[in-house]
Amino acid sequence: MPEKAVKLPKNPEPGEWRAADLSLKYIADYKPFNFVDGEGVRCSLYVSGCRFACPGCYNAAAQNFHYGQPYTEELQTQILNDLGQSYVQGLTLLGGEPFVNTQVCLQLIDALHERFGHTKDIWSWTGYTWDELMQETPDKLELLSKIDILVDGRFLLAKKDLTLQFRGSSNQRIIDVQKSLSQNKVVLWDKLVK
Description:
- Helix 3 (102-116) runs parallel beside helix 5.
- Strand 1 (26-34) and strand 2 (41-47) form a beta hairpin.
- The longest helix is centred in the middle third of the chain and has 15 residues, at 102-116.
- Helices cover 25% and strands 20% of the residues.
- The protein has one domain (19-183): Aldolase class I (TIM Barrel), CATH 3.20.20.70.
- It is α/β, with parallel strands linked by helices and 194 residues long.
- A seven-stranded mixed beta sheet has the order 3-1-2-4-5-6-7.
């Protein structure tokens, strides 16, 4: 009996998926005060649109760039007010794919830094690997430079592992972005549970 072909996510060429061409600036969801999208209490923004199309994606509806509602100043104000609660550790960007929705993500991060400085941390999930992001467009590199923790890599159904900390498949890494940028190599998050 022939083996069944394993369906894999799509793989972009450097600079192929440009936020300016793809993003409609839609939001799939906003979840304040949750405990699952990174360390501590977080406010999580799920942007709409992703081209990776990972088989088994837990948020497949958010792959559609038309899904959800437009990002608004009112929503940004609500997010910033929620982040202002003393018990909230930070902001998480998910999707969809934050790195093809850089306009929304950068606008929110800049507003967060203006109000809170660097007292709130920023996590992001991405289907891109670190090495792929290093070859990407200026807006993606700017977004990367402004976040603290990155969970990188496509979700691979064959490597799915529900016991992993903040990841869905074993190929994904939790990266300390600022240490990685300063050392010019991938540095894993120091609170990673092996």
